[in-house]
Specification:
Layout: H1 2-15, E1 41-44, E2 47-50, H2 57-62, E3 68-73, E4 80-85, E5 89-96, E6 99-107, H3 124-131, E7 136-138, E8 141-145, E9 150-155, E10 161-166
Antiparallel strand pairs: 1-2, 3-4, 4-5, 5-6, 6-10, 7-8, 8-9, 9-10
């Protein structure tokens, strides 16, 4: 009888308690939510470049003088792609309704950063402090994805970022 009364008292206590006061059956297997921040844009020379935005000739030269401009048949879209390569970054565009639309922004050096502050030369751990821990890793590619964008960090065998792509 004592065991029954003790069990009823304990059950009443647990049912009437908040999860912070009683044992939570989910707390031992649940983990904190992983965050992931994927970027859609980069700012260069006070000009914002954004995936999906028009890349006009004015914008192309406002960010600096391209080292090269290459046109090629599109691998991803109809028509022709144009790749504008600058010293520190590249912008990949495709034709849509007579306009060049940005579909990839690629960063080569520490002189261009994601809006969160990640650059070439950082470690994966430093990037995770800025972009969150909710990334996927396949070989030398660390990727953050959300409903709008993807940000990929290419890393070497020392987990140091060697290139960044926003797409």
């Amino acid at each position: 009888m004592r065991k029954l009364l003790a069990g009823l008292a304990l059950g009443t206590l647990l049912v009437g308690s908040t999860p912070t006061h009683a044992f939570s059956f989910t707390s031992w297997w649940s983990q904190p939510a992983q965050t992931a921040v994927a970027s859609t844009q980069v700012t260069v020379n006070e000009v914002t470049l954004e995936v999906g935005a028009n890349f006009t000739s004015e914008v192309a030269y406002a960010v600096g003088t391209p080292v090269s401009v290459v046109e090629a048949p599109s691998c991803h879209f109809e028509g022709t792609d144009t790749i504008y390569t600058y010293e520190d970054f590249a912008v990949y565009t495709y034709q849509q309704d007579g306009a060049n639309k940005i579909y990839i922004i690629e960063m080569f050096t520490e002189n261009v950063a994601t809006p969160e502050g990640a650059t070439v030369g950082m470690t994966v751990e430093q990037v995770a402090e800025l972009h969150g821990t909710g990334y996927t890793r396949e070989g030398n590619l660390v990727t953050y994805s959300d409903d709008v964008a993807n940000t990929a960090f290419y890393v070497n065998e020392y987990n140091v970022v060697t290139g960044i792509e926003i797409f």
